[in-house]
Amino acid sequence: MKKPLSLSRRHLLQGLGSAGVALPLLEAMVPGKAFAQTALPKRYIVFFDGQSLGADDDPVHSQFVPNTVGRDYDLKTGLAPLGALKSEVSVVSGLSIPTANGGAVPSGGRRDDFHVSSLSPLLSGVRSPASTASAGVTSDQVVAGFIGGPPTSLVYRVQADWYLSVSAPYGRDMISYRRNSTGQLVAIPPQVSPRQAFSSLFGSFTPPGVDPAAARKAELDLRSRRSVLDLVHKDADRLKPQLSRQDQLRLERHLDEIRALEARIAAVPPPQTSTCVVPADPGADPQAGAPQGTDGAGNNTYSTSNGYSGEEQRARAFCDLVHMALACDLSRAVSLQMTMFQSHLNMFPLTGQATDLHELGHGGVPGGTSAMALGHAWHVKHFAYLIQKLRDTPEGNGNMLDNTVLVFLLEGGHGNDPGGARALSSHSTENMAVLVAGRAGGLKPGQHIVASGKHPAQVLVSAMKAVGYTGNSLGEVTGEVPELFV
Amino acid sequence: MRALTLGLTAVIFCACEGTAELQGPRGVGVDLPIELSPQVTGMRRLTRVELDQTLYDLFGDTTAPAQRLLLPDPTDPFDNDYESQLPSAALIEGLENLALEVADRALADPARRLELLGCSPSGPGDTGCFTAFARELGRRALRRPLTDDELQALLTLQPLAVEDDSFDTGAKLAIRTLLQLPEFLYRVEVGTPEAGRPGVYRLTPYELATRLSYFLHGSTPPDWLLDAAGSGELSSKEAVRAAAERLMGETRATARVQRFHALWLGYHRLPHAPALAGAMQAESDALVKRVIFDRGDTYFELFRAPDTFADAALAAHYGLAGAPASGFGWISYGGTRRQGLLSHGAVLSAGAKFADTSPTQRGIFVRTRLLCSEVPPPPPSVNADQPPTSSTGSPCKKDRYSVHASTGNCASCHQSIDPVGFGLENYDQAGRFRSTDLNLPQCPIDGEGRVTGLPGGDFSFNGPDGLSQVLTESPAFDRCVVTQVLRFAGGRREKPDDAMAIDRFTERFRAQNRDFRALLLDLVSDETFAFRTEEAP
After folding, report:
1. Overall pTM surpassing 0.90 (yes/no)
2. What does the buried/exposed string (b/e) look like for A187-199 if buried means 16 or more CB atoms within 10 Å of the residue's CB?
3. B91 touches chain A (CB under 8 A)
């Protein structure tokens, strides 16, 4: 399998002294299609907004989906932050996820109760299971399996906490699922600390221009990290046979992650270029906020730090990190969960609205769907920021957007709620919309496509195809939205 | 069932073995009566709080690195359920950063460095000093002596120290390695197979010491306990009990029992401004300490106390008179309906929804946390995310929630839930008394509540004192207390096989005047505590 002659000097150096490396690393070391610079790498980004489009009992489905169909569409409140970048973003509207409607959950559909029931069909194309959040591998992890490059997908979340005391998020806090080495479907708990994400991605980069002594020190540090992990790994291998079957599986899952870290360390940073540079250290993470609070009269308060942990700064920092991780080819598949399903993020510091993101859909402040759109606009602002950064980064004969696809997914749409028997509800997966940005694989962004009756996972199939997916389905959902390429 | 079919062989084995004690590192010398089945256990990760306490004990690190650098533990209601722990890239990266930070800090302070190293290195490659340091720290970090192979493995780090011309570089790498070993991060119990009891393992003395210490202190075993494990002193029920009593005498045990209550009753985090939240937690912690540690009262006093620990601000919050001029003091509840822990703002803050108290959420809280009933989630077709609305248009809560009881498949569950919560409605979500619905002076609150389906029937009550009386008179309540303690001790929910053990400990709890300290001691000095049953594959 290894072809030492074709390994670069860099990869040879990494191979030394890492006898215990796992298969994924060896694959990563093979400079085949992924690392041969004949074709530029492709990248896939899932961006998630944990709210629906329209508010309860408001006849307006959204202030997000344009009126105009086709190119040069109009920008409503929710998409306003796109501005001129709308030429890089397609809106696919008219989507829906079927519901059980009192019966069995249909293929690719969801249970009738709302929160988190759309997670599985939306992100993995598999009908929502009875008790857990996802029943299938999510698209970012399907892509991570074939997209090549470093064996690391980035799984980040901006909303730092669930923000309700006493209750637990029950899966609303994770949007990536994969199969581990034992074949089990597992959730991937996201990194929520920009500080740690930075140190994981760029901790071993040596800034250019440092003196030789500092460079030697950095190299020694890197070898030290490897030596430590090597001992950890060997010790775990020794321990494993002594354990019960269940504990062996637990240890194996832990070792999966150690191997992945070893692989990330072994992937010595590429030489820094005009586009791959160590980003500014994001510094200490913003202070973690308390759960939602109450004022003296027992009402929730939103004007304080309760329910907020500096998500504005965190979102910016994660977008910067994602951009540079892609520019340096440290990863090619990204899941960036801005907010949780049924998000109780305090909107006051972000939009001045004295409510949380979830309550915006239920009349938390006056204004219905229009008020809700301000919450979406906050998400879209950061989405646009990331698109702009990718577009500003030259690559090949164009820029990074040429080889990237970004999809922006929302928890729900607006319309009938079979669970609550309400005709115009935020608890609905009718009238959903998905944004698709980037030009990877011949995508033609900048259009509003009405794909009535289609499933959001079909948009994901198209996005996956744009980065080389050869299949035609995601989970139980087959087919795509071909207009995205026209 | 399996125990029955195996009974014969095991009895024969016991007869041959008599009371012969297996001492030393091979196993704890406690006999396991054949009718007892030890709890099933799997490897469990240290919680963030346990990890920080452990790092304090090992290195004097006071910066709470785990709470800063690792993801929160899944908490429902306890933070140590190993069946819901997931490894992740975020965990592994956080741990690597944590190990780096802790190692740097540990050697940065000269006094702490000397204490940790235990020797003065003659140079970067001083193998003798390195070995002595690694042996001692390894024993404390892994909660057992290192093998020679493990020491040799750590010695392979020394060339990096020589290359860097710094002994401390090697010492830091050894610390970083030890902190990232699965055997440090997880409590791994292996033990030795128990003859005649398939699937049952006898813990090593070190594993037993670790179990004891993390249960009672939430931290790594102190040196004296490791020494006792190493010298074979933990060789009888009595010896284990004596060690447990010594652990229970330390303030850390008080903090651990307070944390158990805070997790169980949901007040480890409170939705209030820091000053109010802190005062409420201090109030509840004080009562837990007084009943269990200072007075050794019956546990029910926790739910009957006629006074509470408050400062002027908290007393004013509750509308209570008699606060001390400065600081906290015990003040009487006087003629109010308040009594014990259920009157505390900390507990009454649980179960808010729709920006107000929710009789449904409070009812679920009492049913699941205090009576250990299973309350099924709403049927899939129900939207429980919206406040109920009354069929008559009344804005009053009692009318609005009555829709639950009159709606088809909602009624069966809500009839056993909502009336419990309505009995606490006179207390708002910060624990203050009120006589009308929030912002609705036209809606009086009668405070009438009802707990149905208890052994002995249905019981009406009004307010925290009434509910406390219903609970303390019900055999379902003290059994639930024992169940919650076992969940916290075992790091998992009980399985059907655990019912016998719960009954047994409940009986003994009752027989000992429901002394909570005695319950803990009883649990750890029980024969089963020195064993584990392997999880079914």
Report:
1. no
2. bbbbbbbbbbbbb
3. yes
Q: What is the pLDDT of residues A249-290, one digit of tens each?
A: 999 999 999 998 888 888 767 777 888 888 888 989 998 888
Nearest residue to B65 via CA among B49, B79, B78? B49
Torsion-angle region of residue B515: left (phi > 0), alpha (psi -120 to 50) or beta?
beta
CA distance B482 to B479: 5
Q: Indicate yes or no: CB of B90 within 8 angstroms of CB of A165.
A: no
Quick check: helix, strand or coil at residue B462? strand
> Residue A458: CB partners within 8 Å, gap ≥ 6?
A95, A451, A477, A478, A479, A480, A481
Closest-CA residue to A264 (of A272, A276, A256, A254): A256
- Compute the distance between CA of residue B421 and CA of residue B413 in angstroms, rounded to an integer: 13
Q: Which helix (H) or strand (E) holds A395?
A: strand A394-395
Amino acid symbol at A165: S
Each residue of A85-134: pLDDT tens digit?
999 999 999 999 999 988 899 999 999 888 899 999 999 999 999 877 88
Measuring CA to CA, which residue among A388, A408, A168, A195 is closest to residue A310? A195
- B-chain residues near A100 (CB < 8 A): 380-381
- Most B CBs within 10 A among A117, A188, A259, A294, hence the mutation to make, goes to A294
Of B42, B71, B269, the CB nearest to A189: B71
Closest residue of chain A to B200, computed from CA coordinates: A244
Q: Are A383 and A45 in contact (CB under 8 A)?
A: no
Which letter does DSSP use for residue A244 in this model? Answer: -
ipTM of the complex: 0.90
**What is chain A's Cα-based Rg?**
23
Pairwise CA distance, residues A466 & B476, whole Å: 60
